[in-house]
Amino acid sequence: MIHNLAQGVQAFTSNVFLVEGDRTVLIDTGANFDVVDAIQSRVDGLDAVVLTHTHRDHVGNVDAVVDAFDVDVWGYDETIDGVDHAIEDGETLTIGDNEYIALYTPGHKDDHLCFYAADAGILFAGDLVFQNGSFGRTDLPEGDRQTLIESIDRVLESIDTALTEMHTGHGPSVTSEPYDHVELSGRMARQA
């Protein structure tokens, strides 16, 4: 079961996905709202926090979540404050009830990761791509348009056309032909 805990929140935050199952994981912590209360209203505890990247809107609530649940935080670069363990490109992680492969996808930020479960047809895309061909900003520090395009291409090569769900860092999740949205994002990034 995947819940977006930031849905309906009127604050500067990212989406925050609580993935319940054998290993209950929080993907990104968001910022500027009481995510701890939102977690506690659904589950008793967390097994891990996994970060798509460390922009402030995605990690602002890390300390509160760690304090409340005594949980470790996983991300691409453990030298960044708040990240306890590194996730390697190509590493397999259990999130909820599924096995996800971590895809290193810089371009929006140097430590950006996407997570893909082939068997379940689920992609957590972070801020790489969004609904309707939108894509992550490249005008912030560490942003690079060409690198972002290469990362989108890598995701397209890694995911199946039968992808059923794409959960993004901002905006709605995509459950209707999400592969097409990723493909469109790649085309739009090349044209922008």
Task: Describe the fold and architecture.
- With 192 residues, this protein is an alpha/beta fold.
- It has a single domain (2-191), classed as Ribonuclease Z/Hydroxyacylglutathione hydrolase-like (Metallo-beta-lactamase, Chain A), CATH 3.60.15.10.
- 24% of the residues lie in helices and 22% in strands.
- It has five helices and eleven strands.
- It has helices at 35-40, 56-59, 62-69, 145-158, 178-191, and strands at residues 2-4, 17-19, 25-27, 48-50, 73-75, 85-86, 92-95, 98-104, 113-117, 122-126, 165-168.
- It has a six-stranded mixed sheet, with no helix packed on it.
- Strand 9 and strand 10 form a beta hairpin.
- Helix 4 packs antiparallel against helix 5.
- It is globular.
- The mean pLDDT is 97.
